[in-house]
Amino acid sequence: MQESGVNAQDTIPDVVASIQRGENAALGFAEDALARIESWNSTGPGLHALIAIADDLEAQVSERDASPVRGALHGVPVVLKDNIQTTFAPTTAGSVLLDGYRPRHNAPIVDRLRSAGAIIIGKANLHEFSFGLSTESSKGGSTRNPFDVTRNPGGSSGGTAVAVAVGFAVAGVGTDTGGSVRFPAAHTSLCGLRPTAGALDSSGIVPISHLMDTPGPIARTVGDLAILFDVMLGMAHPRNLAARDPDSIRLGILRDRFGDGEDELPTTSALEAALTTLGDYGVQLVEVDGRGFDERAADTVQFEFAATMDRYLQAATPRTGIRDAWQIANDPRVEARARARMMQALRGADDSRGLARATRHREIVRYRVEQMLNEKRLDALIYPTFRTPAAPLGEDRWEAGNGLLASVAGLPAVSVPAAWADNLPIGMDLLGRRHADRQLLATAATIEWVLDARRVPEFVQASS
Predict the structure, then answer these.
(1) pLDDT digits (tens, 9 = 90+) for 110-160
(2) Which terminal Cβ of the chain has fewer Cβ within 10 Å, N or C?
(3) Does the annotation count 156 as an active-site position?
């Protein structure tokens, strides 16, 4: 497939600057994205990253090309996880149960993206109702990892990550409850941000947990994450992100989050080499022990899911035809692992005491993490985003993810490409202080620069 002068791995500033200079138009970027989708989504490698193309894509492109640059995302193709409400494409949460469901309003973050000039290409596959890590759904099928199509991209925002990795879009937005932005970013050599709890508006998203759900950007660089984050915050003019001097950074290595199992050792070994590189550049590394955090005791999904989903379904307009979470979990059309995990979560539906205990423990976990950051004078904690490389299709390695700590503590975390193992990308998670998302991104930008670990899938590179 030949490109028309547009690089499949352009960053957000690359696209906007190219349009400003008159070198390319929004139409060219959109047409190249659609050509890749035609070649690679259902045919060729059969990535199954996208579920739907925006109904108004042509109108979006025409409007951007007819108007002066009006925002930080002007003409930039963006893809959305399909649990984020849109009026211009169905919102299915990856399920045939919601096939054709069109909310009357976009999620607020979608309107902010479009106000900044983004072109929403379409909606991306996810693990059905976000209940899994392998991105399999009754609506979108099984999404494949572009670095090895016999493996999955992680989840649940796997379709969004794959779309960005191969150039179906320049950037994307997923959602993160327990790692679902950061895991697929790590498995596809991308960057992914889970912001501080409550920083971004989570309304208009098909929910799992009121306390733990958040939208989050997935992009090719930390700088792009920062632009998307600022836009979704509602900032008209995103701030410049300045990387820090490596020798000004002090990181705490959460050694207990590294694995020593047979499947985990390749990741551990690769990240040990990455840590050595960071040290060589002057980054201060401190060994810390996080075994006392006990974040699993603060996981509220099992107590929140039923009530949170029921409220969403009851408020949905037009109505979806689905009464409640129990109906979803008992429908045999729903992907098997998602259905099993829903049934497990529903066991805590009426356990108000359990929810109160978990909610209190969230505060304890946050206090312990922030105490460690402060006492050790750390900029962030670091650990493997996922303790193994990407799993084969049909596996999700639920226990290998390290995403829950930031999620229950409500603290920001960003995954950056850090290493390679078995020819597969490995991500490193950095966890920072509450409401210090920008400072964390500045630290992550330096780590990204030092490690320089990001690669492009071979078939994408060959097509450029």
Answers:
(1) 999 999 999 999 999 999 999 999 999 999 999 999 999 999 999 999 999
(2) C
(3) yes
